[in-house]
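We treat protein structure as text, and this decision shapes the records that our systems exchange. Because each token names a local backbone shape, the row as a whole describes the fold. For reference, a complete record is included directly beneath this paragraph.
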Amino acid sequence: MIDPQHKYCPKCKDEYRAEIVICAHCEVELLTGAAMLERQRAGLMKRAVRKGDLREDDELVSVRRGPLAEMRAYEQVLKREGIGTMLAGDDKSCGKNCCPSNFDLLVRREEAPEAVQLIAAEIRRTAPLDGPGGSHHDAVFHDEAAVTVCPACGHSFPPAPECPDCGLCFG
């Protein structure tokens, strides 16, 4: 429930007292409760005019290509927003989950720009480097250094073929 007397982060949706200006986590300017309510209304109106499930005559375009599990996750994001989707496997797809293959996530041409934005937002939301404490993202592995920092998880360790904390391979 959004309270018009409070402020909210447009990215993480955290709630703040009215006098706070910047989100502590995202470092973006907060919106008033009234502005957040208006955003919600606009989003609901957008979803209401979407066509939903795909039809035979829809012109489809690919908005993302990758492994099935990843494409299914993005498919769910788009479906929650009322955007119809279809997954199409490449020539290596055997349908038995035994072959390495990629899948295209297809949407209506007219909904593609918004679908791309929604997927990008989901990637930013779920990427470990995008959140607080992600200052190790510019770390570089040096095999000749006495101590190095893993660019994936930020763990400090003597050079090794892989990070002892997260298993990232440096070979």
